[in-house]
Amino acid sequence: MISRNLLRMAGLVMFTALSLGTISAQAQAPKTAPYIELTPPQPTEAGGKVEVIEFFWFGCPHCYALEPLLEPWSKKLPKEVVFRRVPAIFNDQWGVAGRVFYTLEAIGEEERLHRALFDAIHKDNLRITDESAMAAWLAKQKVDVDKYKAAYKSFTVETKLKRALQMTQAYRFDGVPALAVQGRYVLSAGMINDRQDLLRATDRVIADSIKQLPKK
Asked: Domains in the chain and their CATH numbers?
C-alpha cells in the first residue's frame, strides 16, 4: 500500500486539514471484515443503492496490482450496488493524475483507457505529469488530443477534482488502494494485505449494507 508515512519520508506534501467528522475505528466489520467506520457517514450518490468507491492513484504499484482482480470483481457486484472510482489526491502530483482521470472521463475515454494507462505508467514508464509524453501516448490510443486539451482545465474537470480532494480528506484513509462502502466503511490494503482477501472482506461489508437498504 502507498501510505502517507511513506509519502512524508519521500518529502511529499500531504494534506492535513481533516475536519469532516471523527473516525471510529472498529476491530471488526460486519462478519469479521476489518474496516474503519466514519462518523458521521459521508453522503453517497448511488440513489437508493449501495455505493462502492475505489480510491486509487495511477502511480501506485499496489493499485496497479489490484486492477486485474478489481475489474472483473466490480462487474459481478450485486444489482443493488453502484461502483465508481475516485482518484485520491494527497499532493500536486496526485492531483495531476486525478486531472488526467477526469479529463479522460469527460471526453468518454476513461473506461476504454483505464487499464491501458496503468500499463503505460508501470510497464513503459510513461510520466503522467509530462504533458508532451501524455499527448503522444493519447495520440497512439487514437484519442482526439485537441479535445483532450480543451477538457483538461474545463469547469467540469475542475469541479470533480475539487470534490475528489474533499473526499480524500473526508474518508480519512491512510493510503491506496482503499475501498469505501456506502459512505461509512473504509477498507484498505493497509488493513488487509492480501488482495483477494481485501475484495472478499469488501463483499461481506457490501452484503451487510444491502440488508440495511430501505425495503421497497
From this structure: 2-211 (3.40.30.10)
